[in-house]
Specification:
- By secondary structure, the chain is mostly helical.
- About 80% of the residues lie in helices and about 0% in strands.
- It has six helices and no strands.
- The chain is elongated, with a radius of gyration of 21 Å.
- The two termini are about 35 Å apart.
Length: about 190
């Protein structure tokens, strides 16, 4: 999903991260024990909405690097480049294929730098969430809080799987894309 968001327009990224902020605020309000009262709930939603918009704004700089790699590819074909990197047929157009190769290499360089850290932090986050869920519910007085911590553990597990799965997928697709650039033996060039 990270790659897909990089190729979307800025307003789509803002909406996605705003929705993530509302999801996190909803989890806190729904499963929180001390968030009674509409005023506190309002400020939780406002805070997480601002956080979502801030994250969406920060992705502008991240996406700008990928848009520079796109070169002459029109914005309408960004989705074709994304599909070439993650799934689907190898594009026939050499410009799309070379752009997909450049974007895949950039993504892999970036992903491999932070991959171990991301997986390690996700594992620590999952452990902390499970520990907090269990520690807050020893006497059964706060089952909603423990549900919130378990929901956060599920989100951290999803992120760990993404940190493990997506770079392998992109690496395999990169091999396929670079092999498509090589002439076939016996074929006239």
């Amino acid at each position: 999903m990270e790659l897909r968001l990089l190729f979307e327009p800025a307003w789509v990224r803002y909406m996605v991260f705003l929705a993530y902020g509302w999801l996190l605020a909803g989890l806190l309000i729904l499963f929180g024990a001390q968030w009674d009262g509409p005023e506190k709930q309002f400020w939780i939603v406002v805070g997480f909405s601002a956080l979502g918009l801030l994250v969406g704004w920060s992705w502008k700089f991240h996406a700008r690097r990928y848009h520079r790699l796109m070169g002459d590819v029109p914005a309408g074909q960004y989705l074709d480049v994304y599909r070439a990197i993650t799934r689907g047929r190898v594009p026939e157009d050499p410009a799309l294929r070379s752009t997909a190769i450049a974007v895949a290499r950039r993504y892999l360089n970036q992903a491999m730098q932070g991959r171990r850290f991301g997986i390690g932090m996700s594992v620590l986050w999952i452990g902390a969430c499970v520990f907090n869920a269990r520690a807050m519910n020893w006497d059964g007085s706060a089952p909603n809080v423990s549900m919130a911590w378990l929901a956060f553990a599920v989100l951290a597990a999803f992120q760990a799987v993404q940190n493990f799965r997506v770079p392998r997928l992109v690496q395999a697709r990169l091999q396929l894309l670079t092999a498509a650039d090589q002439p076939v033996v016996g074929e006239s060039v």
